[in-house]
Write a structure and sequence with these properties.
The complex is a heterodimer of chains A (192) and B (70). Chain A has 8 helices and 2 strands. Chain A is mainly α and 192 residues long. By secondary structure, chain B is an alpha+beta fold. In chain B, the strands form 2 sheets. In chain B, strands 1-4 form a two-stranded antiparallel sheet. In chain B, strands 2-3 form a two-stranded antiparallel ribbon. Classes of the chains: A mainly alpha (192), B alpha+beta (70). The interface between A and B is medium-sized, with 36 and 21 residues.
Chain lengths: 192, 70
């Protein structure tokens, strides 16, 4: 099958993760993975981002497919249930807003900058080497640490489900995928 | 004249559990699948040859290959 430029976006996803290892401020670029799918869904009423441009999905597809790291088993029924998918979306949202609150506290001077990446919302990993001071407020770096934590956590989760189930199992419960599908459903109800 | 019914393999999507990720669209050699308005994968039954690539690829395993009489 003919390859298109957008079939190589996995390189950007991988580069993003690597850049965050050297300079945490690159984590801000991850917002593109939040806003572009929302624009596709909100304006276009489609999941064009998931369907074509999601580099993370491609990366899992590559690792699990071509590199053969995946067992290629079916995901369990509960994982594709609406309850789990929407529950995970809500959980993700809560953790995301908690991260935004932390950022606010640093901006407000009520908290000092935490130079750590929180993996799976629990494990604090030292990450001070990726922070070299900044011209901006410490809150800018706090958001970067928080956002990188979100991105790394979802990559780790997706990686494990890629190993255990089908390569792109992450797509089944990806909060952005669930949210954009929900937006599309609501938008189409409006149209009908 | 007598017509004989033939059996063909076709892909069917379990629509209420489809996550509309589009993995099936990418692998379909006949371009018989589309994501309908970002909500669900729809198979064009006239183009589908029932090769099963989409079913193998689907991360949610919601595509089934069935034999239908045509």
């Amino acid at each position: 099958m003919k390859k298109h430029w957008h079939d190589y976006l996995w390189i950007l996803s991988l580069t993003y993760l690597l850049l965050g290892f050297f300079n945490i401020l690159f984590a801000w670029l991850g917002l593109l993975c939040f806003f572009i799918p929302l624009l596709f869904a909100g304006i276009g009423g489609n999941k064009g981002y998931c369907n074509r441009y999601c580099g993370r999905g491609q990366l899992f597809g590559l690792l699990g497919g071509r590199f053969g790291l995946s067992r290629k088993k079916d995901v369990p029924g509960w994982m594709k249930s609406k309850g789990f998918r929407y529950g995970f979306l809500i959980f993700f949202f809560i953790m995301f807003f908690q991260m935004l609150w932390n950022t606010y506290l640093v901006f407000a001077g009520a908290k000092s900058l935490g130079q750590a990446v929180t993996l799976l919302w629990t494990f604090k990993l030292p990450w001070h080497w990726a922070y070299h001071g900044t011209l901006f407020h410490a809150g800018v770096a706090q958001f970067a640490f928080g956002f990188y934590s979100v991105m790394l956590t979802s990559t780790v989760l997706g990686f494990f489900t890629m190993l255990l189930f089908k390569p792109r199992s992450w797509c089944v419960y990806c909060p952005m995928g669930t949210m954009t599908q929900l937006i599309c459903k609501l938008k189409n109800k409006e149209v009908q | 004249m007598e017509t004989t019914a033939r059996k063909k393999r076709k892909a069917f999507v379990e629509e209420h559990t489809c996550v509309a990720c589009g993995c099936c669209v990418k692998v379909c050699p006949m371009k018989a699948i589309q994501i309908w308005k970002g909500t669900v994968a729809k198979v064009d039954q006239t183009t589908c040859v029932g090769c099963g690539k989409c079913a193998r690829e689907c991360p949610a395993s919601v595509i089934e290959i069935r034999e239908v009489t045509v």
